[in-house]
Design a protein that fits this description.
The chain is of the alpha/beta class. The chain has helices spanning about 40-50, 70-75, 95-100, 105-120, 120-125, 135-150, 165-185, 195-200, 220-225, 225-230; strands spanning about 5-10, 15-25, 30-35, 55-60, 65, 80, 155-160, 185-190, 205-210, 210-220. The strands form 2 sheets. The protein has a 6-stranded mixed sheet, with helices on both faces. The radius of gyration is 17 Å and the shape is globular.
């Protein structure tokens, strides 16, 4: 397994947010994380990247990464697209993409990957000289995903990529992410409120309730479960 979490815990001060999250992501695989607001989905990603202190076991490529700083985690090949996108508003689209590649030294490869991102998200090509703050919400989400890809990660953490987007825009963003996964082989851990979008991308999913993993399995199996359909699929 590329990523393994076993009984992971994390708190904000005295408030325990996750208390027993276990999941795994195979190399090249994609796993979704479902759950209601407050279930601990975002905190799980923050525990992986070292933004919050965590207990339990967190392993990446067989190596414990619990307790590492966020920059150390990123250097191992984990890129995080946070909720709220986190683009650098005062920088242009091209500058944001270059920031994503700050650890890389292969100038020709960086140039090729910028071209690839602009082909993957054509809207960004049209806004290449615009500051990120001038982009629409959908364009900012595209830029956030593209910037994370520029780091050449082995694992991409996506947090609520459809949040605040119109349904058609969200569908377009996920279509590009599916293509990115197919063409790059990057493994993905996907936090998403819209289970239909998540299930269009991931092979398996984990359901969190009040900070614990309560259910997991292949997406096709989860789709058939009444409790999943009622809670997450509008069935």
């Amino acid at each position: 397994m590329l990523l393994e979490l076993e009984n992971v815990t994390a708190s904000y001060g005295p408030v325990q947010v996750i208390d027993g999250v276990s999941l795994s992501v195979p190399d090249g695989g994609a796993v979704g994380v479902l759950g209601a607001n407050g279930a601990g989905k975002t905190t799980t990603l923050r525990a992986i990247t070292g933004v919050v202190r965590a207990g339990g076991e967190i392993r990446f490529d067989g190596r414990s990464i619990r307790g590492m700083r966020p920059d150390q985690v990123a250097a191992l090949g984990i890129a995080h697209v946070p909720e709220g996108r986190g683009t650098l508003g005062d920088l242009t689209v091209r500058e944001n993409l270059r920031v994503g590649a700050y650890l890389r030294r292969d100038r020709a490869g960086i140039a090729r990957d910028i071209d690839y991102c602009l082909e993957l998200f054509p809207q960004l090509q049209d806004r290449i000289r615009s500051n990120a703050s001038a982009l629409s919400g959908g364009e900012q989400q595209m830029l956030a995903v593209a910037r994370a890809f520029m780091a050449k990660p082995r694992l991409l953490l996506l947090d609520e990529a459809s949040l605040g987007l119109a349904p058609g825009t969200a569908k377009s963003v996920y279509g590009a992410i599916r293509r990115l996964r197919a063409e790059s082989g990057i493994a993905m851990l996907v936090v998403e409120q819209n289970a239909n979008l998540a299930f269009s991308l991931v092979d398996e999913a984990v359901v969190l309730e009040t900070g614990r993993s309560v259910l997991s399995g292949p997406t096709e199996e989860l789709r058939t479960m009444d409790e999943i359909r009622r809670a997450y699929l509008g069935g």
